Task: inverse folding
């Protein structure tokens, strides 16, 4: 159920103002199905004045109560934020389990996390969520469909943990994640010493990032028509038409109203995007709410500190061209011709993918400039690196150094400067 909060003069408008309510309801249904819940019914509840104790109005409470009782519904998903008091009151009123949007997304992330880092991040986010509410909602879904995520099965120590120890567990998780963050930073430093620019795919969940990733790299990353099919980031080498090699990164999908607990916990992962040389925003151009999804993604990127440079400099991959009608297709293709930062494509059929690679190539080429370098003759490794990844325009040697005029990309110049500092 999606509660549609009406705008009232003099009061702050809802965070979802301007978005298609039907699209938000469909998204909530997709989130529920992402953890294999059987959706018995879905509806929009109009809320003119949220009630502190229940959020919903009396009439809505009664109507939903009858629906829940008649269909023996075991869990109600409310696509919004519930306070602990509201959640408890709704559960008592309807005599069933109630979870809100944050709890549902935590369920999905708990099930999908595969790597050590992903599990740490999900557990931290879950424990930072309301503690008493956490155990009730997750143990209920445990009975619904068995063990999942990092919780495993019934009887796991996490389900029995005393609330007084949760704070200590959070502290330990943060300490371990600090170690993960340091390791990630070292990996990024190592990549700077490798002559491969990084291209990051970002986008709203289910926009087709993993399908595009698989198409471009000929990989088999999990991709499906579901929200949050990908949680752990993946990287592969990719050859561009010019012969230049880049590292392509597939990242977790964004979503509107992403819980703050998750943003904080996954910051180390999302910061990989800030280190990318090029960011490709994959959009589901066939989605009715595509424009608002675009704004949500840019908002998250802004929260990561990328801000206006990303909005002005990212490449837009308008995906799912195979699903649009002929008139929309023509409009998208004309837009791509006028906008050198945009490509219309289909990750499923491959149409437009070569154009995307060519655009990435041109972007990297446009960042190439000529520089003068003085490299000691004894540093054969750096000299070989320069010849492999740059275009040497001229060279003059003396007794101590090679004086070079070289065309290099901005990314390679930064890597070279980093290498020189390490020497």
Result:
């Amino acid at each position: 159920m999606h509660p549609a909060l009406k705008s009232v003069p003099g009061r702050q408008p809802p965070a979802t103002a301007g978005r298609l309510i039907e699209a938000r309801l469909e998204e909530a249904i997709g989130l529920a199905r992402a953890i294999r819940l059987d959706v018995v019914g879905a509806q929009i509840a109009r809320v003119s004045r949220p009630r502190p104790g229940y959020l919903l109005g009396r009439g809505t409470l009664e109507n939903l109560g009858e629906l829940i009782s008649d269909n023996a519904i075991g869990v109600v998903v409310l696509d919004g934020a519930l306070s602990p008091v509201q959640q408890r009151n709704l559960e008592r009123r309807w005599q069933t389990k109630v979870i809100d949007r944050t709890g549902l997304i935590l369920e999905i992330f708990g099930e999908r996390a595969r790597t050590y880092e992903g599990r740490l991040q999900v557990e931290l986010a879950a424990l930072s969520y309301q503690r008493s509410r956490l155990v009730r909602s997750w143990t209920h879904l445990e009975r619904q469909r068995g063990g999942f995520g990092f919780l495993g099965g019934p009887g796991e120590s996490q389900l029995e943990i005393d609330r007084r120890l949760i704070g200590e567990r959070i502290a330990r998780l943060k300490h371990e994640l600090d170690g993960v963050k340091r390791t990630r930073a070292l990996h990024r430093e190592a990549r700077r010493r490798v002559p491969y620019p990084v291209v990051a795919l970002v986008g709203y969940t289910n926009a087709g990032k993993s399908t595009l990733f698989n198409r471009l790299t000929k990989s088999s990353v999990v991709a499906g028509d579901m929200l949050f099919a990908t949680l752990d980031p993946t990287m592969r080498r990719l050859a561009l038409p010019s012969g230049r090699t880049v590292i392509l990164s597939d990242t977790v999908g964004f979503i509107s109203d992403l819980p703050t607990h998750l943003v904080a916990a996954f910051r180390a992962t999302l910061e990989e995007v800030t280190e990318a040389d090029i960011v490709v925003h994959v959009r589901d151009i066939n989605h009715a709410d595509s424009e608002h999804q675009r704004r949500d993604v840019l908002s998250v990127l802004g929260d990561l500190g990328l801000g206006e440079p990303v909005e002005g400099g990212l490449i837009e991959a308008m995906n799912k061209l195979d699903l649009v009608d002929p008139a929309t297709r023509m409009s998208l293709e004309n837009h791509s011709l006028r906008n050198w930062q945009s490509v219309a494509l289909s990750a499923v059929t491959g149409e437009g993918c070569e154009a995307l690679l060519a655009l990435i190539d041109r972007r990297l080429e446009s960042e190439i400039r000529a520089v003068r370098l003085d490299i000691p003759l004894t540093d054969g490794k750096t000299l070989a690196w320069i010849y492999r990844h740059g275009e040497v325009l001229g060279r003059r040697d003396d007794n101590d150094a090679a004086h070079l005029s070289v065309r290099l990309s901005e990314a390679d110049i930064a890597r070279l400067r980093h290498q020189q500092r390490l020497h």
User: Anything to note?
Assistant: Residues 105-178 form one domain.
